[in-house]
Known about the structure:
This protein is α/β, with parallel strands linked by helices. The protein is built from 8 helices and 9 strands. It has helices at residues 6-15, 20-29, 45-52, 70-77, 89-101, 139-150, 175-181, 192-198; strands at 43-44, 60-64, 81-86, 106-110, 123-129, 151-162, 203-209, 219-220, 225-231.
Amino acid sequence: MLVKDEQDVYDLLDSLLREPTQFWDSFYKDRKEKEIPFFCDRVDEHLKKYVENNMIQRGRVLEIGCGNGRNAIYLAKNGFSVTAVDLSQEAANWATQQASLENVDIEFYCENIFNLIFPNESFDFIYDSGCFHHLAPHRRITYIQFLQHHLKHDGYFSISAFKENGKYGGSALADEQYYMDRSLHGGIGYSKEKLKVIFKRFEEIEIRDMQYDNLTQDEFGLEDFVVSLFKK
């Protein structure tokens, strides 16, 4: 391809890695045959704490990588106006069904987040429970641009991601190696220090390990994940 602008560079780098839509559709289509921890109806433990402790204010929320909708449904039940997106149509369909069963109103999209078009500063809170660590290194740049565009002034965003060399994934290779291998090796792992550097333009509220024991029946947590909350 002829590289003419910045978008062409991103597209070229994307083409070196696995096209993810087919993978994620297959992943969610075969869900009844898999024992996947987050194929459940529990809410992420840190998200519940943010809401219960009023660390985030009720308003418009965008969840990216919503999966079966468990966190979006929790937010909708707790007074938030929720928009949720997933790359997989299978996941979006599953989430829509779950929301209908729970009788909550959520606007679901099946789309690559970088193709979403919302007005500037549309959301008070953006929540990401497992999308970020599946993005290629060059997409960190467009991810930050995405946050800057869509978050309101004084808005918050939260990410949960693989820790480096963790139990469930978390490759710790140098960024250039992913392109040389043409693979993200199941997902990129992050240390607390790396998240601080990547999101240095934002105010850090907390970065910590995800809790995975001593949880209530409605809380979800996994070992070897790092969770974070930032403010624009």
